[in-house]
Write a structure and sequence with these properties.
By secondary structure, the chain is α+β, with helices and mostly antiparallel strands. It has three domains: 142 residues, Rossmann fold; 63 residues, no CATH class; 174 residues, Porin, CATH 2.40.160.20. It has six helices and 25 strands. Helix 1 packs across helix 2. The protein starts with a helix and ends with a strand. 25% of the residues are buried.
């Protein structure tokens, strides 16, 4: 009894070693996935994995969870074979192990059988019981279907969705991938210096090739927008760090705008075109929250700008508020491949200014509008600011 317990413990330890080794094994070579079920216990599963691992034709053995389809898991892990075993060892009766050797790509049973006999001892289980199954697995290797799809992309491209783990395209520019047919799987590819690509791969027959295009990132874009629904602006964007961050340079202006009247005047309605002699050149930095292939892409940025008066004899910084800063949260929707529509909400802070004069120019804090402001002797803060427009990728 003690010897039997010792052998069972040794078999369990071997099973754990095989499990750890399979997790770090090289993806090349002949790999077999094993699912051992039934009420026989862990000692039977460990002895089966150990027997297969001793075969010179098999490079590694990977255990399969008992509640998973072994052929499906084997295909996702690029295994050459899947072995499915159900064992029973009832007290007082002969033991039996019903087994199948499966092709992961077609789910075809390449070999099957049943091992029966008196309940084996721990030594018999480890050394003799699984010999017919191991021989059948070795003989089935030439019958396994070869890799049926090829994925071609730029070297270094990382692809998810086609296998259990992400795929990285090697220097050869392609990778062979086993898939059971017919099957349709979504995929997404990311390559440094290029836009993400995605789609669905319908593998209907063996030998199909998936060619993933590569579109280099376009780093420059031009933005035309309206501030507060009135004054046109023009900005240029330069993206960097894989289109996650961006710098912006441009100018807002009050030289020409629309005056949106929201009340009736008793004598004379103000003109619809509004003009003030001021431009606001500025620069800013921002970041996108989602990648460039998102349906709606939120982002945030902050800018600093100068307020320049264009008056005869008084050209220069505005004496009331010479500089200002703002911050916006926005989102863009790419209506066309190189055209996006955006909408932004934000706030502005004017430091080193005459806050009381700024408030007076805005009509005071209680001007009846949907705006909120805080001001003091040397600052002015207002929110919300609204911007929308179109962004063109060059």
């Amino acid at each position: 009894m003690r010897r039997q317990r010792f052998l069972r413990a040794a078999a369990a330890a071997a099973f754990l070693v095989l499990t750890a080794a399979s997790a770090i094994c090289d993806e090349e070579g002949v790999r077999v996935l094993v699912r051992s079920g039934g009420p026989s216990g862990e000692a039977w599963a460990a002895s089966l994995a150990s027997a297969l691992a001793r075969s010179p034709s098999l490079d590694s053995v990977i255990p399969c969870p008992p509640d998973r389809d072994p052929a499906e898991v084997a295909a996702r892990l690029s295994c050459s074979l899947a072995v499915d075993v159900e064992s029973e060892a009832p007290a007082g009766s002969d033991a039996s192990s019903r087994w199948r050797v499966l092709d992961p790509l077609t789910y075809e049973a390449l070999a099957s059988g049943t091992i029966t006999g008196p309940s084996p001892t721990a030594r018999e289980l480890a050394e003799y019981w699984w010999i017919p199954l191991v021989e059948a697995a070795e003989a089935a290797l030439p019958k396994v279907k070869k890799t049926m799809v090829r994925v071609s992309a730029a070297p270094g491209t990382e692809i998810t969705g086609l296998s259990e783990e992400p795929l990285v395209i090697p220097e050869e520019g392609y990778i062979d991938l086993p898939l059971r047919v017919p099957v349709t799987r979504p995929w997404r590819a990311v390559s440094k210096g290029a836009y993400p690509e995605s789609g669905y791969f319908a593998a209907l027959e063996q030998g199909m090739v998936l060619v993933i295009p590569r579109r280099p990132l376009r780093l420059w874009s031009v933005e035309a927008g309206l501030t507060m629904l009135s004054f046109p602006e023009l900005w240029a964007h330069r993206s960097f760090r894989e289109d996650k961050y961006f710098l912006r340079l441009g100018m807002a202006q009050y030289l020409l705008g629309l005056y949106l009247v929201n009340e009736e005047y008793g004598r004379e309605t103000p003109p619809a075109i509004l003009s003030l002699p001021m431009i606001l050149p500025g620069a800013g930095i921002g970041m996108y929250i989602l990648p460039s292939d998102a349906y709606v892409r939120p982002y945030m940025y902050a800018s600093a700008f100068a307020r320049i008066l264009l008056l005869k004899g008084a050209f220069g910084f505005d004496t009331v508020a010479p500089i200002g800063t703002n911050a916006f949260l926005g989102a863009e929707w790419r209506a066309f491949p190189r055209t996006a529509v955006f909408f932004e909400l934000g706030a502005a802070l004017y430091p080193f200014c005459d806050g009381f004069l700024m408030a007076a120019s805005r009509g005071g804090q209680d001007n009846g509008g949907p705006f909120f402001s805080i001001f003091g002797p040397d600052f002015y803060f207002e929110t919300p600011l609204i911007r929308f427009g179109t962004r063109f990728t060059l």
